């Protein structure tokens, strides 16, 4: 196996040697497709500079690049960035994102943070039911997106050792604006984006922007599942020796959350055939239904809590921030970034706990004294040959996810040396309430019906499809989290221009974390309560899941030492090589609560082993620039040590992982009208140690060996046409390395035409060939099962048209 890996790396090395030889006769860099071949980057760098002069791997996406890629969600934007695996099948949030084979052991993005204007949206990327992409929306107010993989992220940000994705917004310095109207052609989507920037006085600039949309999204939920928008404002004052900027954002958006769906899988684990079940299309279907739009449960405060299921992922964020920089003279500079975000909302979505055909479902021990089953609200017996599911309705109230972030930095520059030091301070609240219920529903993507069950005496043991108030099979799960994470992180970096060609940088960071608060609901408790108000204690009301009201205190500290040392050597004006060694970590937040540790004993070795997840990285690369092309090649290694607890599987893990591979990022202009961009990442990953000895040596779940994207583009006389080809090779559903998810390649074509100077129209498509692209699955094998796997897939083909007016 190792010989095959090195053979492949040698092939890539030969490709780059040939590219180096070719480059010796090429002229200087030029501007192409509206962007510089070698752009100045600011993310993960103390001294903004052209990317060829940095010892990091960083990609820049401009607004037009993103529009052409036809992303239906924010996470889909990241699929075209080499090295980043974005499982964007969950809707406008709850996406799993990682970098270069670093594992996705639960959900979210534990090792990568999303930033807006250099500060994190959330301090932790993997908060259960409150992931950072839920509070991030892309709109035309974004100027560009910079994506840093590995490298200096360990020094310049907390809890993001694998990388940073930074949304950089407009400031109004560029006069003008735009209005874009987008319409879904084969799905319900109506969206308006706008932005405008102008100078309002000498050295003073203002910008506004945002979006609003309404529709059903790419999957048919039976109601308007997407409804909301975002508004942003920026004011910038520039003066002789610096600038001051204040900005604000208001996000209030409701979108559907798509959980794993019932999928038919036949064949064998190594050669499975994935397809839709009867009455449920895995490319267009959703588990949400018009038959279930209201949920009533017992709140953790003892009061009845009512929810509208169409709220889905309801994300509310009210943000205000400021940036100040000043040139103190004699090489000294001062920079301050500060932001406060009031975040809250709700997450409500059905998650299938078990699925089978009616003849098995109702007689397999799911119900005590089963007598009969009818479709809720009728006397019609269910079809025993159809499929049914018992699902947990994930109902989580995001009470308080507020955060405060402040990053202070001062630097000094001499002729060949630049030093900077900073102090980062943040506070993140995680206050949420889990209030889940248990329902019975048919498997259908067309207004699925709820099912009522009667016992042998003919008495209903359900109430309009509701089986349990609480999630009885999983230990109730009536939880309250109320914790605060306080981080103080001093950091410093030095950059030395040793020669005209050699630049060396070294930096270090130390995170001092303090965790306080409490949680409740660790023990299973039930009460009797008339939930529906009919004056009778019905069977589902005899055991209503309730919070135990026993507050478990949380009071511990942690420390994370991170460093990064890199060097960049310019062979000439068009070629450079670089290398970097880094260490960093990400603190465990809510994921380790309810796991039985002593959360008030800093000297407890069991707690100490799971407080911080550590990542060590090595990377070396070659950067090539030419008059009409560029190529970035990076060899990488990452070693990860982490702990986790997964609510849906009730599993606790403590694993060590290793990944190594190569990442390619390139562009080539074939003619004045035709060019191609492409990215490719090869990863060999392995579980090196684990609590479960049977998985040691296996490939981490959902990690493909190869990921790729290709974007050919033809443009002439205001007409542009092209497509994105995005794909990955096969991967295992679970660490047991049995059931295989198939490889896939999806095609997203686009065409646009500039009707006049300030008016353009475009049509784009996503997954035009309806490719089944499985991104995750709950089951690890089909052996001994019933041929049904709960999995998430990318949506099927969606088409949209847009008109953009620039002014």
From TrEMBL:
Keywords: Cell outer membrane, Ion transport, Iron, Iron transport, Membrane, Receptor, Signal, TonB box, Transmembrane, Transmembrane beta strand, Transport. It is a multi-pass membrane protein. Residues 53-164 form the TonB-dependent receptor plug domain. Residues 277-768 form the TonB-dependent receptor-like beta-barrel domain. The keyword rRNA-binding does not apply. GO terms for molecular function: siderophore uptake transmembrane transporter activity. One of its GO terms (cellular component) is cell outer membrane. It is found in: Cell outer membrane. The keyword Magnesium does not apply. Belongs to the TonB-dependent receptor family. PANTHER family: CATECHOLATE SIDEROPHORE RECEPTOR FIU (PTHR32552:SF89), FERRICHROME IRON RECEPTOR-RELATED (PTHR32552). This is TonB-dependent receptor. It comes from Chryseobacterium hagamense.
């Amino acid at each position: 196996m190792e010989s095959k890996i090195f053979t492949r790396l040698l092939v890539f090395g030969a490709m780059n040697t040939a590219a180096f030889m070719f480059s010796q006769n090429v002229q200087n860099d030029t501007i192409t497709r509206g962007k510089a071949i070698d752009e100045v980057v600011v993310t993960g760098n103390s001294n903004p500079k052209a990317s060829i002069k940095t010892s990091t791997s960083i990609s820049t996406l401009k607004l037009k690049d993103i529009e052409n890629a036809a992303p239906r969600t924010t996470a889909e934007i990241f699929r075209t960035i080499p090295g980043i695996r974005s499982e964007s099948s969950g809707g406008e949030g709850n996406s799993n994102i990682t970098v270069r084979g670093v594992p996705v052991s639960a959900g979210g993005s534990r090792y990568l943070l999303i930033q807006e204007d250099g500060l994190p949206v959330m301090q932790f990327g993997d908060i259960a039911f409150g992931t950072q992409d839920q509070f991030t929306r892309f709109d035309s107010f974004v100027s560009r997106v910079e994506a840093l993989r590995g490298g200096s992220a360990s020094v310049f940000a907390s809890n993001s050792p694998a990388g940073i994705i930074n949304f950089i917004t407009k400031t109004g310095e560029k006069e003008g604006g735009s209005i874009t109207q987008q319409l879904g052609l084969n799905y319900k989507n109506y969206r308006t984006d706008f932005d405008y920037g102008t100078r309002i006085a000498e050295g003073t600039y203002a910008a506004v922007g945002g979006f609003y949309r309404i529709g059903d999204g790419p999957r048919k939920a039976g109601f308007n599942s997407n409804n909301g928008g975002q508004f942003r404002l920026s004011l910038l004052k520039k003066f002789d020796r610096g600038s001051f900027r204040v900005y604000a954002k208001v996000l209030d958006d409701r979108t559907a959350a798509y959980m794993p769906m019932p999928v038919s899988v036949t064949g064998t684990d190594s050669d499975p055939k994935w397809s839709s079940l009867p009455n449920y299309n895995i490319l267009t279907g959703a588990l949400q239904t018009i038959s279930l739009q209201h949920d009533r449960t017992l709140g953790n405060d003892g009061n009845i809590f009512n929810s509208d299921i169409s709220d889905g992922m309801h994300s509310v964020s009210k943000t205000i921030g400021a940036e100040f920089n000043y040139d103190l003279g004699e090489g000294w500079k001062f920079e301050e970034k500060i932001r406060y975000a009031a975040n809250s909302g709700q997450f409500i979505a059905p998650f299938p706990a078990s699925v089978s055909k009616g003849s098995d479902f109702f007689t397999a021990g799911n119900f005590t004294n089963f007598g009969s089953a009818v479709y809720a609200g009728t006397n019609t017996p269910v079809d025993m040959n159809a499929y049914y599911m018992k699902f947990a309705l994930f109902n989580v109230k995001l009470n308080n996810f507020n955060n405060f972030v402040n990053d202070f930095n001062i630097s000094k520059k001499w002729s060949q040396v630049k030093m900077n030091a900073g102090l980062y301070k943040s506070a993140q609240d995680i206050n949420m309430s889990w209030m889940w219920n248990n329902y019975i529903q048919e498997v259908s993507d067309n207004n699925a019906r709820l099912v009522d069950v009667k016992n042998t005496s003919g008495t209903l043991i359900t109430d309009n499809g509701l089986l349990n108030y609480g999630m009885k099979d999983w230990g109730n799960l009536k939880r309250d989290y109320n914790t605060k994470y306080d981080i103080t992180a001093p950091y410093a970096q030095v950059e030395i221009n040793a020669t005209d060609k050699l630049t060396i940088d070294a930096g270090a960071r130390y995170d001092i974390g303090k965790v306080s608060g409490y949680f409740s609901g660790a023990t299973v408790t039930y009460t009797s309560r008339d939930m529906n108000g009919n004056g009778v204690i019905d069977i589902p009301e005899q055991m209503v899941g309730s919070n135990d009201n026993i507050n478990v205190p949380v009071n511990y500290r942690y420390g994370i030492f991170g460093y990064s040392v890199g060097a960049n050597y310019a062979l000439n004006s068009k070629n450079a090589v670089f290398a970097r060694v880094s260490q960093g970590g990400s603190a465990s937040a809510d994921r380790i609560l309810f796991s039985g540790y002593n959360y008030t004993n800093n000297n407890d070795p069991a707690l100490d082993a799971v407080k911080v997840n550590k990542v060590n990285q090595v990377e070396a690369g070659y950067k090539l620039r030419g008059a009409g092309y560029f190529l970035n090649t990076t060899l990488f290694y990452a070693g990860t040590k982490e702990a986790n607890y997964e609510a849906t599987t009730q599993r606790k893990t403590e694993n060590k992982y290793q990944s190594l591979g190569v990442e390619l990022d390139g562009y080539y202009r074939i003619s004045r009208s035709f060019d191609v961009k492409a990215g490719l990442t090869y990863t060999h990953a392995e579980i090196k140690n684990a609590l479960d000895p049977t998985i040691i040596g296996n490939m981490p779940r959902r990690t493909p060996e190869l990921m790729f994207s290709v974007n050919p583009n033809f443009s002439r006389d205001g007409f542009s046409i092209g497509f994105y080809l995005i794909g990955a090779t096969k991967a295992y559903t679970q660490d047991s390395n049995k059931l295989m998810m198939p490889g896939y390649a999806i095609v997203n074509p686009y065409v646009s035409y500039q009707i006049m100077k300030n008016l353009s129209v475009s049509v784009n498509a996503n997954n035009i060939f309806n490719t089944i692209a499985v991104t995750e699955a709950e089951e690890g094998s089909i052996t001994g099962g019933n041929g049904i796997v709960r999995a998430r897939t990318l949506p099927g083909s969606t088409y949209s048209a847009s008109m953009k007016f620039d002014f």
